[in-house]
Amino acid sequence: MDRNQLVKWLEAPAKMAHKYSLHAVYFCTGCGIIEVPPTITARWDAERFGVLPTATPRHANLFLITGYVSVKTLRAIVRTYEQMPEPKFSVGFGSCPINGGMYWDSYNTIKHLDRYIPIDGWIAGCMPRPEAIFIAVTHLWTLIEKDMADGYKRYREHYDEYRANQERVLGKLEWPPLFPMRKDQ
Amino acid sequence: MNGALTDRLKAIFRDIETDDVRDGRLTVLAPAASVLSVLRLLRSDGYGYLQLISCVDWIDDGQLEVVYVLSRYLDGEGGIGGGPIRVVLKTRVPRTNASLPTAIEIYPIAEPYEREVHELFGVRFEGHPRLTPLFLEREYEIPPFRKDFDTRQYVEDVFGSVPAVGEESQDS
Amino acid sequence: MRELELYFGPQHLGMVGNFSITLKVEGDRIVKADANPGYLHRGFEKLMELRSWIKNFPMVCRMNVVEPDSMEMIYSMGVEKLAGIQVPERAQFIRSIYLELARVGSHLFGLWAYANMLGFDTVAQWAMYHRDLVLDLFEELTGGRVYHIYIWPGGVRRDFPDGFEDRIVSTLHSIGGCVPDYDNAFFNNRLFRERAKGVGTVTREDAVAMGGTGQVIRATGMEYDIRKVDPYAAYDRVPWDVHTRTEGDAYSRIWVVRDEMIESVHMIFKLLDAMPKGDVYNRIPNPFKWRIPEGDAYVRCESSRGELGLYIVSDGGDKPHRAHFRTPSYPHGLTVLEQALVGESIADVGNIMISLYVVAPEIDR
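YS: structure for the whole thing
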């Protein structure tokens, strides 16, 4: 361990702990799931970066949305995201969550994922390689370090806008609002 | 040998058209009312493997064409051997109030295929036990796979109109 | 006993792929199962009608993410049949080698999923590592690890680089040399036998009535393999066997997968020996002005999960009028799964689903 890290560990141990143990919730949302098993197994070993898959969103703080998002999947994604405890970070994986990607004219996939849940970073590619996932993890460390990975805080602040967008696409949502909604003036 | 099946079909059903067997495949065009009887005959003739029920939208003719692709597993497996390996049975229904009887009693595998054709093209299958949506979550006025459903316009109307979050409160 | 409704939903550690099953259980026994697909529906076939024939090639391989090469092959076969394009001999051999490598990779992925489901994590890590060695070969040949876009109508896009055949042989030797380890750790393991024997049995009559293909039907004793029944590419130029078992349960299906993997490796060696020299593609017409004559065709091939078919219709224009993929996971995931799950325990749902090799994006397209 080098000396700069030691100072950071003493000053902000919680932040360092969040960085170096990003546990990803195991949800195979789309195409990109094909590059996640190589990442978490022996050859490209993500555990040396602290990234492990967990079974339930209650134990996770990283949500990797791998690939395109259809309307039915969006419902499951919003529920999973809301079940994760804070602080939580979400990363869009592949070119499809960014702007629709190859399915830009499909009637069943949503086009911009960051209008429905907050995204801290994107990984471009179709498919991104395992090394791209690791570069993204190191970028996420830098963002956490500088307190710029504030997706969960944005969700809390703009919750009624996010929920309005979700309801536009999914219809009436059957779960109650996560945060108290701001009453319109 | 190849002509035997064609002759039998023509002898029993007056109102169907068939071609010669080409490339191991026999194409049969039948009206909607005789579809089940033709399927029953083919099933008893050894074509026990329903590979696909598909639908093609011929919007210029104002008709939907439902296609049944039948085959058998191995030669001699159940029923009379010989004859073409594949029979493609096509039938046309009008685009408004499209409906056909279900083929589930003859081929149990028809159940998900008919559900999909109903959902994406709007063809009703009378007698189907579970004609609920298979893939789609939202309601669509025109079934999405029909040619007059403009998917790009739909995307702009529904997904393009979703505003980005935080745009208004940038100066807060 | 009371009945409970459980969602074996998309976010579940036992679910590989975005698929959901609604289970009605009494205690630990499943009484009724309803498959709930649609999480990955993109309206693929509608999108294909809006793009020209050549633009569909990069799209088609994304339909099935575990083995995209069989999708490229079936679309090429359909277009070639409609347009009457011939494929040179060397390209047929290259296609067969390429598809067999994809089959090995796909079966190793299935072995990772299945071994994880039963708790054999070590074997899962080995399987994924060996699949990565195969993906390295693909990356050298085509430039991409997962989506290759290598087969197009008229042949393949480029020839093998220098020395590629030696690299294929050495990679397959290093994978094949580990087969005794796999057998000791997994296939001959008493725990695998106890978890998988008698579980998820699909009899031959049920499989035939429900349109089951691939290892579901080969595990019941029928030697039904499209590469033998309706040969395409270069599969009828070399001798090889179809492997079957008789019981039809999860144990037999996984053993059929293992035997097929070994047979694929031997087949690649034979194909490499018999491959002639020559061109690797015939020129296709100008892709911007390519119109295919009217007609329809149904073609089929054997992917790693079963019989993959395509019903393609052209109305004489520059875009497909209708392309309908008959994917093998469609009957396996929707009717065979619902029937095979009745009476089993909740812990075996993942076990049965992976042994039937249900790949969710294929069902929804």
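YS: worth flagging: Chain B is about 25% helix and 25% strand.
IM: good catch. Also The two ends of chain B are 83 Å apart (CA to CA).
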